[in-house]
Prior knowledge:
Elements: E1 5-6, H1 10-15, E2 19-23, E3 26-31, H2 35-44, E4 47-50, E5 57-60, H3 64-69, E6 83-90, E7 96-106, E8 109-113, H4 119-129, E9 135-138, E10 146-149, H5 153-159, E11 171-178, E12 181-188, E13 197-202, H6 207-220, E14 224-225, H7 228-238, H8 272-281, E15 285-292, E16 303-305, E17 312-322, E18 327-335, E19 345-350, E20 353-360
Parallel strand pairs: 1-3, 4-14
Antiparallel strand pairs: 2-3, 4-10, 5-8, 5-9, 6-7, 7-8, 10-13, 11-12, 12-13, 15-18, 15-20, 16-17, 16-19, 17-18, 19-20
Helix pairs in contact: 2-7, 5-6
Amino acid sequence: MSELLAGPIADRHGALGATFAAFGGWDMPVSYAGTVAEHTAVRESVGIFDVSHLGKAVVAGPGAADLVNRTLTNDLAKIAPGKAQYTLCCNESGGVVDDLITYLVSDDEVFLIPNAANTASVVERLAAAAPDGVTVTDRHREYAVLAVQGPKAPDALARVGLPTEMEYMAFTDAELTTEVGTLPVRVCRTGYTGERGYELLPRWDDAGPVFDALLSAVTDLGGQPAGLGARDTLRTEMGYALHGHELSPDITPVQARSGWAVGWKKPEFFGRESLIAEKAAGPARRLHGLKATGRGVPRAECAVLSGPGGAQIGTCTSGTFSPTLKQGIALALLATDAGIAVGDEVVVDVRGRDLVCEVVAPPFVTPHV
């Protein structure tokens, strides 16, 4: 087994009392004060996450934006420089190699943030399709990613002199004054929690002083550092997909209800023919939300049954206890021929125990982005 990679500020997480676990090949902080407390801080105040494990790559050269637009699913032509866009990198059968954020810097430069474990695959696929003069470079260890999320996130950034008034999915390059000097930071109004928030990209070697400045502002506002545990409960409450769960090389955006991130009218992108055919025919399975009606927590890979003692009609892709709702919730891929609709009840087999769940349409809580 290969050794886990460490982020740029692992020492700071240790000093803050974080517990760690492996995720995507990286040793990640899971929690500090506890997942529920961190989750609640983000929903009600503000939290700061270190997600520097996320990949970074740069597509550069004449026609860089065109390369991205004819390979990835979303229509990059719909946004202007200074905006970011959620998109998918699919395989030939329409499965999702990765979901990622594109930052359109200019027609000649696009900055990508893929998932940690999939960065090399995305870079390889784009590089293979690149024309002469366009380069696709893995910059995984050149930039850190710090996420400040919650209703007080704008106040936290304002306290350290960073901009906050950009539109949703817009970014700007700024400077942050720290105890070691003024440092460049790219600030984007994005996030993975459903709350108002920002993702900041300092240089990898600058992550420490940038984190220190932000953490001071966050804690002054009553917030706290948050780990991978809270990140997962927050995104599940929003119904946001996690690659390897709701999206994978075997799960298409049509099945995962991510068709909104596909530029269906574009003439070209990876997996286009397969996805158009699946959309026209209708998928064999589709993602639904499940909310437990009694005590119990559905978990990933639990079987979903049509009823007590009924046939299996699907599988949970993610499941957790919702700190906001105080009940179990899940996302599940269910067979379309089962005829399941919002409001129906199904049964989740949780270690041999039947857990009745109501079928709902995510998000489970109201977003405030």
